[in-house]
Amino acid sequence: MTIYDVAHEAGVSVATVSRVLNNTAPVSPKTKQKIMTVIEKYQFQRNALARSLKKKETRTLGIILPDITNPFFPEVFSGIELEARENDYTLFLCDTMGEYERETQYLYMLRERQVDGIVFLGGRINLSKVEQNLAEELQTFAQRVPTVLVNGSIPGNPIHRVCVDEGAGTEQAVRHLLALGHTDIAFIGGLEYMTTTMQKIRAFKKVFREHGLTVRKEWILYDDFSLNAGKRQMKKLLHMSHKPTAVLCVNDYTAVGAIQEAGRRGYSIPNDISIIGFDDVPLATAILPEVTTVSQKTELLGRTAISILHKLIQKEKVKKLTVIEPELIIRESTAQL
Amino acid sequence: MTIYDVAHEAGVSVATVSRVLNNTAPVSPKTKQKIMTVIEKYQFQRNALARSLKKKETRTLGIILPDITNPFFPEVFSGIELEARENDYTLFLCDTMGEYERETQYLYMLRERQVDGIVFLGGRINLSKVEQNLAEELQTFAQRVPTVLVNGSIPGNPIHRVCVDEGAGTEQAVRHLLALGHTDIAFIGGLEYMTTTMQKIRAFKKVFREHGLTVRKEWILYDDFSLNAGKRQMKKLLHMSHKPTAVLCVNDYTAVGAIQEAGRRGYSIPNDISIIGFDDVPLATAILPEVTTVSQKTELLGRTAISILHKLIQKEKVKKLTVIEPELIIRESTAQL
């Protein structure tokens, strides 16, 4: 259905249809009505693609993330969606399933689709040592397409980013445990080469140092970010002759796994061991005991990423780094020693 | 960066660049190399939008769903993503946040973006009585844009759909409880006007009838699909003088809420009460006891939706209804009476 078909069916000229569509010159109400009836009948639509070509904007954004089934990301995505809708953007969701190669493919694809900007979460921007070609690829991309990184960074020229201060969040968590009388504290989960793990452990050690305490090396148990990681590492801890009285977990998933494993072995949480998570995903309140955790303010995080990106697209000045303060949420999985 | 810029920088004619890009005529290796270097240098890309206009396809699909933070949908989305990638589609994810008006907005927007097809989950297609204008809108849309409905339907001409047989899944769950000796069974959660709730209750009553049993009306407790619905309704059940020995839940979320509430009130699951969920989302194995549930085979469901949609787009014949058989997964939340 083109403008020519509409003109033909309404028995008017193409110019008249154009006048009505673009409101460029007055047309008699009767003629206008005739044209609108045909348009409604066929649900004639202006061609969004053609308009995009002309306007050099597509009002589409690409969202690259590593795993939509990890509940942290849908929560952030909700904030992204809310803010994107308010600014009339539609979203391509690109789930890389944790593979760097797919990140590359999606970057290429999103450029080809001429998105107005992208938000990048997880993957290579969370590596403490990223391969040079992965870094350069994203740098080059960001020079051409407005880009915002969430909770990560990349070597080279700083790309605009919004980060939750995970170190500050971890400090709050450790101070909470110290205030409850715990000094035998273990750390569970997280890949050693990911910045999110490193930042948390660094903050953990910092607070301990400030209190003249030392973190026991054998109680730092790296693993991945899954429920099973929490189970595996809790099992290890419970087999040690000297057991911690409290456990910091890299995220809520591992905390819930740790709580499940402890419960299965007859330990009562928080009476026998205090456990603390990170993220505040819905899972944290689904189990008994509800999990004490650090909120990353996921909706705000997602909204902020888009509001920064929108400003970049409109060529407004934005500071390179926006920091969101996390918040300790005390629930039932931590108790006085 | 246009083809003219490439030609200029490489010191060759536009026609030569075109020959290389489109491989329409032989070009000397040396010239080709020169052009490719310039192209790589500037990451020259063919204009995907222009190509889409010419080809009348965009290789984009729209996915409309009600709530990405409900873990059922990310699980289905993963299957959708896997199959879409294999067929070279990129996905617009449209989260309606449960509002019918947003469904309308997204349908309009996706048509304007000229997606090659859409997958529709939840919302109006799950209403047992849908308003006529909502039904007609989707019917009209589906006549123009290839459309696949997941776990739902709409009055009027049948639209292609893929459904898990939720009735059959519920029958398996009820038979499992009967085999364990339970006949005092309650049903928790689900909005009364949603087909997913109705189908399950109908199947529950059917199996009971077959065994000469009657479902107690006061034990059918409608609510929404949330964790809190499970908590609220379990609390009601535990306040009754005659309590059920087993509870069927509309989904895993309500089952986990019910388990949490029972635990909080000192009931041991499954020793005191057996509880069974539906969906098999990751949450089902995150808690203690792990939840007996009915798997909707979410990845297969998502994959199947896209493979049907892809056939529709290619104008292949596909049957209107594809049914996926669900599977009872026996875990720890159900036990012999």
Give an account of the 3D structure:
- The structure is a homodimer of 337-residue chains.
- Chain A is an alpha/beta fold and 337 residues long.
- Helices cover 45% and strands 14% of the residues of chain A.
- Chain A has three domains: 3-46, lambda repressor-like DNA-binding domains (434 Repressor (Amino-terminal Domain)); 55-164 and 298-323, Response regulator (Rossmann fold, 3-Layer(aba) Sandwich), CATH 3.40.50; 166-296, Response regulator (Rossmann fold).
- Chain A has a six-stranded parallel sheet with strand order 2-1-3-4-5-11, sandwiched between helices. A four-stranded parallel sheet of chain A has the order 7-6-8-9, with helices on both faces.
- Chain A starts with a helix and ends in an 8-residue tail after the last strand.
- At the A-B interface, helix 4, helix 5, strand 2, helix 6 and helix 11 of A face helix 4, helix 5, strand 2, helix 6 and helix 11 of B.
Structure characteristics:
homodimer, 337 residues, alpha/beta, 434 Repressor (Amino-terminal Domain), Rossmann fold, six-stranded parallel sheet, four-stranded parallel sheet, 12 helices, 12 strands
Nutshell version of this structure?
The structure is a homodimer of 337-residue chains. The first copy, chain A, has 337 residues and is an alpha/beta fold.
